[in-house]
Design goal:
Arginase, Chain A; alpha/beta
């Protein structure tokens, strides 16, 4: 925790960029309860309903989501005026990715015990509400990024959810819903999903395997979950124990060429922190500084080419919630530097 704060304690405050203006009204799937046009800082999407109650000692660190925002404000990375509040994702929006049967069962509590074990979550009205707000947050971050160039959510990255079932702590695929929403509202729009969570985004890869307007790029630990991988448009499987320098070199070897050849109109960036050496489910050896350099490189490389990017926090697992929340805030801190240096 001290290490992360020390990394950023001497960085200057965010400079004022351009105002949003009225262009947001042109977005057909825009989902905001509260618009913050008076702030020209980095947009950060957050909702108090990103959390719900879980059984005692549950492995999923649910409490991390509000703590991410807490540290961003406490450390003066952002102000409250930069926070954008999403609406809950509608059933119509979710049907763009998930089957009618699955949504009906999920929303109405008809998920059986075997299905609950596969997701890792007991069903509750709270988990349904949480997942729908999280998905709405990723959609909002993507839409705001299209107009402001860069935006981050304090949740998101549920890339193991398939159209007809959930898996691996993922019940709705927020990245897929956001991408589908954007290409549906503008058929010629192309979306690149850069997934740097330590686990392959198998659900996202499956959903878009025959969709030419969405390109899925995953760098993941090959021997980690899921055991059965799907085929992304580009999969890069790395070995256990990979450290900062080699990991960043792997990303650098692929990202620029993808941006040049695919030419996306938007990048959705899953900035999972589970490649960290202290992560309970990771198996890689990245440090705080390595995660920061990774996030800074990805966002600066994309934004410098005039391509908008929306970032979500992805996976991260630790019993120390504050240390984990600070680790997740690295992507917002890196985004703040990109925002300032690129004069956004």
């Amino acid at each position: 925790m001290t290490c992360i704060r020390h990394m950023f304690s001497k960085r200057p405050r965010l400079k004022v960029g351009r105002l949003l203006g009225a262009a947001l009204t042109s977005c057909r799937c825009f989902h905001a309860e509260l618009v913050r046009p008076e702030s020209s800082g980095l947009p950060v999407v957050h909702h108090s309903q990103y959390v719900c109650d879980l059984p005692a000692n549950h492995r999923f660190p649910m409490e991390k989501f509000p703590r991410v925002l807490h540290f961003l404000i406490k450390d003066q990375v952002i102000t409250e005026k930069q926070v954008w509040v999403p609406e809950i994702a509608s059933e119509e929006l979710l049907r763009g990715v998930h089957t009618e049967e699955y949504l009906n069962n999920f929303i109405n509590g008809k998920i059986n015990e075997q299905e609950q074990r596969r997701t890792g979550f007991p069903w509750s009205e709270g988990i349904v509400r949480r997942c729908r707000y999280e998905t709405g947050g990723t959609v909002l971050a993507a839409e705001v990024a299209l107009h402001r160039g860069l935006a981050c959510s304090t949740a998101g990255g549920t890339h193991h959810a398939f159209p007809s079932f959930g898996s691996g702590f993922c019940l709705l695929n927020d990245l897929a819903v956001a991408a589908k929403c954007l290409i549906s509202s503008s058929p010629r729009r192309k979306v690149l999903i850069v997934d740097l969570d330590v686990h392959q985004g198998d659900g996202t890869a499956f959903i878009f395997k025959e969709e030419p307007c969405v390109f899925t790029f995953s760098v993941h630990c090959g021997k980690n979950f899921p055991l059965r991988k799907q085929q992304s448009d580009l999969d890069v499987s790395v070995e256990d124990g990979l450290e900062d320098k080699e990991y960043l070199s792997t990303v650098e070897a692929h990202l620029p060429s993808l941006l040049e050849t695919f030419r996306p109109d938007l990048v959705l960036y899953d900035a999972g922190v589970d490649p960290h050496w202290e992560d309970e489910l990771g198996r890689l050896r990245l440090t705080d500084q390595g995660l920061y350099r990774r996030d800074l490189y990805v966002m600066k490389t994309v934004v410098s080419r005039g391509i908008p990017v929306a970032a979500v926090i992805g996976g991260g697992y630790s019993r120390d919630i504050d240390k984990l929340a600070l680790r997740h805030s690295i992507v917002h801190r890196a985004a703040t530097q990109v925002w300032r240096e690129c004069g956004m």
